[in-house]
Amino acid sequence: MGRSQETFSKKEKEKARHKKRQDKEQKKEERKANAAKGQGLDMMLAYVDENGNLTTTPPDPRNKKTVDAGSISIGVDRQEATAAVAERKGVVTTWLDTKGYGFIKDTQSQQSIFFHKNGLIDDIRQQDKVSFQIETTPKGPSAVEVRKLG
């Protein structure tokens, strides 16, 4: 008769599986024993008071406020694109011709303002002095009607 095909590692793996199974059964029995001692579902409930804090006491129905569901707005309202009338001046700090966009540094506010090639009137290069108008878009301020000065 031949030797057993069980190696040391196979025996260790089997022992580990058996121990894991026993631990699982033991935990299951403990949960069943604790559930029998528990006070029930009422002790597991939590309530939220008018300030948003969790509490164990139910709210007073007399203090109930009604809210119109139509008045609740989820998210942020979209901003409409509006053009400013005042013409501003600045310097083109970045211009990526291959990508079709760049940034202008406003001389008045020192703010970096995005512009797209669709908003260009003249051909421009980096470090050119330009005049432009600011349009507020949903993503922030954007320069339009960009003209090269001088």
Break the fold down into its secondary structure elements and pairings:
Blueprint: H1 8-37, E1 47-48, E2 54-55, E3 82-83, E4 88-96, E5 101-106, E6 112-116, E7 129-137, E8 140-148
Parallel strand pairs: 6-8
Antiparallel strand pairs: 1-2, 3-7, 4-5, 4-7, 5-6, 7-8
Pfam families: CSD
Protein name: DNA-binding protein
InterPro entries: CSD (IPR011129), CSP_DNA-bd (IPR002059), NA-bd_OB-fold (IPR012340)
What report would you give on this structure?
By secondary structure, the protein is α+β, with helices and mostly antiparallel strands. The protein has two domains: 9-59, no CATH class; 82-148, Beta Barrel (OB fold (Dihydrolipoamide Acetyltransferase, E2P)). It has one helix and eight strands. It has one helix at residues 8-37; strands spanning 47-48, 54-55, 82-83, 88-96, 101-106, 112-116, 129-137, 140-148. The strands form two sheets. It has a five-stranded mixed barrel with strand order 4-5-6-8-7. It has a two-stranded antiparallel ribbon with strand order 1-2. A hairpin with a 5-residue loop joins strand 1 (47-48) and strand 2 (54-55). The longest helix is centred in the N-terminal third of the chain and has 30 residues, at 8-37. It is elongated, with a radius of gyration of 35 Å.
